[in-house]
Amino acid sequence: MTDPRHNSSELPSKPPIWNDPKYRALFFQVLLIAGLFYFIYTIIQNTLGNMEARGISTGFAFMSEKSGFDILQSLIPFNSDSTYGRTFIVGILNTLLVTGLGIVFATIWGFILGIARLSSNWLISKIATVYIEIFRNIPLLIQLFFWYFVVLKALPQVKESLSVFDSFFLSNRGLYMPSPIFEEGFMYTGIAIVISIIASFILRKWAKKRQESTGQQFPIFLSILGLLILFPLIVFLLTGSPLSWEVPKLGRFNIQGGVSVIPELFALLLGLTVYTASFIAEIVRSGIKAVNHGQTEAALSVGLKPSQNLRLVVIPQALRVIIPPLTSQYLNLFKNSSLATAIGYPDLVAVFMGTTLNQTGQAVEIIAMTMAVYLIVSLLISMFMNWYNAKMSLVER
Amino acid sequence: MYITNKILPELPAPSNAKGLIHWLKSNLFNGVFNSFFTLLAIFLLYKILPPIINWVFIDATWVADTREQCIGEGKGACWAYIGNRFDQIMYGFYPIDERWRPNLAGIMLILLTIPLFFEKTPKKSWLGGFILIVFPFIAYSLIHGGGLFGLEVIDTGKWGGLMLTLIISLVGILFALFLGTILALGRRSTMPIVKSLCVVFIEFWRGVPLITVLFMSSVMLPLFLPEGTDFDKLARAMIGIILFQSAYVAEVVRGGLQAIPKGQYEAASAMGLSYWKSMFLIILPQAMKLVIPGLVNTFIALFKDTTLVLIIGLFDVLAIIQNVLGSDNAWLGFFTEGLVFAAFTFWIFTFSMSRYSMALERKLDTGHRN
How does pLDDT run across B100-144, given as a tens digit for each residue? Predict the structure, then answer.
């Protein structure tokens, strides 16, 4: 209780110090910080004590030690003589590979499904609905097990591979495809591709400017398509077609040559695509539905063709609704790619947090590094999508 | 001129604008594209559906005592296998004589929850509070033993199957709800240090995959604690799941807090309520009602994510099917059936929950849409 005499001598606007919100806030925050520091200090002390008791070494010296194990798939040269540091890189690259491919496939498939669900064709829209409701309500891990242990294991042996044109082989060892071999002189075609890309940008800008000043339209889509395909093709033929394909050959026990997609990658990609696409489809559907029908009516009444209405009116407005939730789906896909470890695809979690952690026992360093990678890439993806989102929403007047 | 004061009866629609033919024409064969896609879809369905239906229903073995009765030429799925191992899929290694305990807890929970779905139930908030605060102790005493009723203690290592899946997800969402609400309030706080700590905490857990969190809690947590303290695998996994999930709950609750008009906050402080009183009496009751659909969606995600605990060696329903039954010699080779059954079980739960959340959203949406 406060002293009444003391209180009356003070102005009512000045409460005692323990009732002043400013000081209270300061006090609580200081207390919180102190508590947090004490908490962290205790954890560090305990961890150091525990590690000493169990004989676990600390520090990052293990990164330059020899790993002594092989990795199923790596984008950079790797063998059992390579260091643990290199396993880290291999893991990151494999994770990024499956994430990148997964995002591309899931986006395409998700947009197709989302549009199919809005289709006026009853059968198509019902099939899309059933697909979406089945796949987004079953845990991804079960789906991955299904694709890997049931579907891919049911594929024929290497000897009886399913083949398309004798150049694509699908068996329970994975998918084998022809790989391109670039011969001398292919460089000119590459240069031609770069030139035509730059030229199409310039053309687009010019056409837009001309339309804004004179109102005349230019068949921009067709001309860019022609530019992008024809010019490189002509250069390619003129320089004597300097590209050949190394076609995989079916041997008695295995397949040689070409590029191969290991079954683990194939299953993981299939699972991630099928699962994420069902979420993306719903996002696309709600995005398109969010565009008021009056917009379409207005567009048609000012004389735009249905295709122009879609391209110039509906999609730009729908994208604004679609992009934020799409970002979180991309982030989910990236994080879900860590389920790779359950079916043996050598991603960051499987290679680094699994095998490397088991062999070195340096849990703290390895888990912290792995989490840091996921955090950083998550932040990068959301930064990029925020930038894209900001760019798209500038269209608004 | 034709004048009448009688209302003429409506004429029937033209014969080409109704009936099956009209429906087919306008829904399946309106245009070349649509006709093509319809035919393509019918062809694909014809190719895909009959084998699946044959396998699942027509050629399936529903009753069998041994594995041999299930295998053979032209036999489909072996559902008898699920029937024979049903107990294990449901309870894991929980002792058979004690299974009435989780059953009782489950039935109690269902009976307590049902009244919440009816609008006319009196004292709903008391019932909800009872379920959230008192019931967990009862359930723990029943399923784990010890505690209130002094039942025999069943080690958590023996818990498994669908029971474990449900326990993990329910306990996870319960604690995540408390922690997440605190975090959401912290994120909206005016104190800069509290706010930034909450932001860092939330964004950290949202930025990493659940597997890494589970690894962390199962490998790193024992290192963090003083030497000699040891607690079981399930509790460690639970801590990881709760921390992870609370970040997602916090973001959902924050959405609700932001949706409450500023006048409510101002009115609360004009009434002279303290911060906590204004939050718990004015703001949160309104905000929580708004975010129920979002919370159900978070719960669905958590429910699906519980399958990941098999990676750190807990025996949830999927792990029982993959690891335990996968090496069960009496019924070897029915992994597909097990997976399909697990998928179906999860689907039933998540699908009905998502329908419920959609219905709620429609109910709570009081028509501010254009």
Answer: 888 888 999 989 888 888 878 788 888 888 888 888 888 888 888
B274-310 pLDDT per residue, tens: 888 999 888 988 888 888 888 999 999 999 999 999 8
Alpha carbon distance B168, B319 (integer Å): 14
Provide the token pair at A247.
């076609």
pLDDT tens per residue, range A106-130: 999 999 999 899 888 888 899 999 9
Cβ-nearest to A379 among B207, B310, B311: B207
Non-local CB neighbours of B164 within 8 Å, separated by 6+ positions: B92, B234, B309, B314, B315, B316, B317
A140 interaction partners in chain B (CB closer than 8 Å): 304
ipTM entry:
0.88
Residues in chain A: 397
Q: Which residues of B are less than 8 Å from A363 in CB distance?
A: 219-220, 223
Cross-chain Cβ contact A339/B227 below 8 Å: no
Sign of CA dihedral A50, A55, A58, A63: negative
For A84-137+265-393, which CATH class?
A: mainly alpha
Checking phi first, is residue A248 left (phi over 0); if not, alpha (psi -120 to 50) or beta? beta
CATH topology of domain B172-318: MetI-like fold (1.10.3720)
- How many CB atoms sit inside 10 A of residue A279's CB? 20
